[in-house]
Amino acid sequence: MIAAALTPDSFLERLPVLARDTVTGLLPESWCWLAGSLLEIIAILAGFGLLFAYLTLAERKILGRIQNRPGPNRTGWFGLLQPFADGVKALTKEDVVPAGADRVLHFLAPVVLVAVSLLGFAVLPFGRHLVAVELDTAVLYFFAAGTATELAVFMAGWASHNKYSLLAAMRALAQLISYELPLLLSVVPVVLVAGTLSTTKIVAAQGGWSLGFVPHWHVFTPWGAAGFGLFMVAALAESNRSPFDLPEAESELIAGHLTEYSGFKYALFFMAEYFGMCALSGMAVTLFLGGWGAPSALLEWIPSYAWFTAKLLVLLLGFIWIRATLPRLRLDQLMKFAWKFLVPLTLLNLANAAGWSLTAGWTGPLQLVRWAVALSLVAVPFVVLGRTLSAGSAPRTYRFA
Amino acid sequence: MLGTGILQGLIVTAKNFVGSFHDPARYTTLEYPEVKPALPEAYRNFPFLVCDNATDPMGTLRCVACQICEKECPPQCIYIEKSRDKKPDATGKLQIYPAVFAIDTSVCMSCQICVEVCPFDAIKMDQVFEIATTDRYAALLLDRGQLTKPNAYFHTIHPTEAAEVDARLTADRQAAEEKARAAALAKAKTPAASPAPAAPVAKRDQTLESAP
C-alpha cells in the first residue's frame, strides 16, 4: 500500500487525468479531443477563477492584519463569502460609458485583457500529467501572449475619452515595454541551460536531488537565484502591482485607465490583473522553482499538482506582502531602475549562465572555483551598480519649511 | 547596500502581521455592534430631562417649564408648553410643569447651552448615539416621554457631575427646611409679624419667571 502510494504514478497523481478520460470515454471517438480540451479549459477557468476570488479576500485580510485591523469578516464565516458578495455588487452596479467614449473599444478592452491574460495558463505544467497544451516553444508563446495585455490597457485608456485614462495608458505602455526586456532577459538563461523552450522539459531538467534532499532547481544555482529575483521584480512591474502601480496611481491619476470603468467591466480588469499575476508566478515556479517537483524524494508521495499550488501560493503571498510594504515609485525612478539596473544585471546573468553551462563538466576543487566565480558574478555587479546608482540619493535628508 | 531598506520594511510589516494576532496593543479594533466602546465621561450628544423617581417619571420631573432653555437654545430646537395647573414636585412643593416638552434632534447641535442655563438641573446631556431612524421627521422629534430619564441613569453616564448635582440639591433642600423651621419658630414667638418668607427655591422661581 505504502509502496504503491510512494510511486510517482500513484492514483492521486493520475486522478485529474483519469477524471478527464472517464468523461471523454463516454463520447464518440471523434469528439474526444474537443471534449478533452473543453474540460481542460473549464478546469483552468474554474480553478483560477476561484483562486482569483479567494486571492482578493486573502489580500484584503492580510493587508488588514498588516495595518492592524481585521479585514473583511462580516460576510459568512470569517468573511469567506466576501468574494461572492463583491461579485454580486459588481454585477448589479450601473455600467457607465462616458458620452465621448468609443463604445466598441470601451467594451472590448476588458474582454480582450481577460482573454489575453488567460492564454498563458495553457502552457503551464500544473502537474506531472497536467499541461493543457504541449508546445515546443511554450516559453516564447507565454511571453508573446502576455505582451498583448499592453494593447488592451492602451485600448482602455484611449477609448475612455478621459485625460487621466490616456495619461495612465501611456504610462502603462512605457512601463510594460520597459520591463518586458528584463523579464525576457531573465528567462533566457533558463532556456540556455535547459536547452529547450518547452515548459515540461524545463521542469523535467530540474528533476532529481543531490543527497536526496537538495533539489536541482534553478533557483539553487547562483545565476538561477539572481534570475529568479530579477524575474520576480520584472513580474511585479508587468502585473502593475505595488510598488510599480503607476498606471493606477490614485494620488495622481484617479484610477488610471480604470477611471471610466464601473460595475462588471471594472471587475474584469481586476480579474485580469490577478490572472496575470498568477500566470507570471506560475511561470516563475516552472522556470526557477522546479515546477511541480517535490523538494525532497521523501515527499514525492504528495501529488505534483499540490506542490505546484503550494509554490504558486507562496509567490502570490509574497506579492501581497510586498504590496503592503513598499510605497509607489516615481516614473523617472521606475525607468531608471529598469534600464540602468535590471537590464545590465540580466545581461550579466545571461553571461553567467553561459559560463555555468560551459563548465558543467568541472569536478572536485574546480567545482568550488565554478561556484565562486558564478557567485561573484552575481554579487559584485549588484553591489557596484547599486552603489553607483544610489550615490547621492541616499540617505535622504528631510528639510522642513 | 541596495535592497536592505526593502528588507527592513518587509520585517516591519511582518511584525505587524504577526503582532496583530496576539498583541492587543497593536490590534486595537473593536468590532462595534458586538463590542461597545467605553465612552469617555465627558462625551455628550443630545439633551434629556431628569426625573427623580423612575416609577413615576412624569410626576417627578425636575423641569418647571421656566422656558429659559427654550429661549437660549441657539438653533431653537426646544419647544415647551406650560401646564395650566400645578403639581407637587419631588420636594412636595406645588410647581407648574411642562405639558409639552419637545426637542427636535435633527436641529439640535449638541451645544449644551440648555444644560448650562437650567437653574433646576432638570436637563442634562445624554450619551445615546444609536439614533438612526427610517423617518426623518416624526422619529427625530422627541417628546416629553421619550426625553425623560431617571436620575439613576444620569449617575451611570456622568457619575462625577451627577454626584455634584445631588450634593447641591440636598444641601439646598436642607437649607430650605432649616429656614422654614426658623421662620415657623419666629412666627410662633411673634404671631403678629409679617408673613413668613417663602422658601428660597420658590423665591428663585419667582425671580426667574419675572425675567424676560
The greatest inter-chain interface is formed by: A-B, 20 and 19 residues
Strand order of the largest sheet of chain A: 1-2
Structural class based on helices, strands and sheet pairing of chain B: alpha+beta
How much is the average pLDDT of chain A?
86
What multimeric state do the chains show? Answer: heterodimer
Tell me, briefly, the overall form of chain B: elongated
> What portion of residues of chain B is helical?
25-40%
Molecular shape of chain A: globular
Instruction: Please indicate the count of domains of chain B.
Output: 2
Specify the number of helices of chain B: 7
Q: Give the averaged pLDDT of chain B, no decimals.
A: 84
Total strands of chain B:
8
User: What percent strand of chain A?
Assistant: under 5%
Summarize this entry quickly:
Chain A is mainly alpha-helical and 401 residues long. Helices cover 67% and strands 1% of the residues of chain A. Chain A has helices spanning 2-6, 11-25, 32-66, 82-92, 103-119, 138-159, 163-194, 199-205, 222-238, 250-253, 263-288, 304-325, 331-358, 365-390; strands spanning 209-210, 214-215.
Walk me through what this model shows.
The complex is a heterodimer of chains A (401) and B (212). Chain A is mostly helical and 401 residues long. Chain A has two domains: 12-75, no CATH class; 93-385, no CATH class. Chain A has 14 helices and two strands; from the N terminus they run H-H-H-H-H-H-H-H-E-E-H-H-H-H-H-H. A two-stranded antiparallel sheet of chain A has the order 1-2. In chain A, strand 1 (209-210) and strand 2 (214-215) form a beta hairpin. In chain A, helix 2 (11-25) packs across helix 3, helix 5 (103-119) packs parallel to helix 11 (263-288) and helix 6 (138-159) packs antiparallel against helix 7 (163-194). Chain B is 39% helix and 14% strand. Chain B has helices at residues 4-22, 68-72, 113-117, 144-147, 151-157, 159-189, 200-210, and strands spanning 47-51, 78-82, 87-88, 94-95, 98-104, 123-125, 141-142, 148-150. Residues 202-212 of chain B have low confidence and may be disordered. The chains are: A mainly alpha (401), B alpha+beta (212). Chains A and B meet through helix 3, helix 12 and helix 14 of A and helix 1 of B.
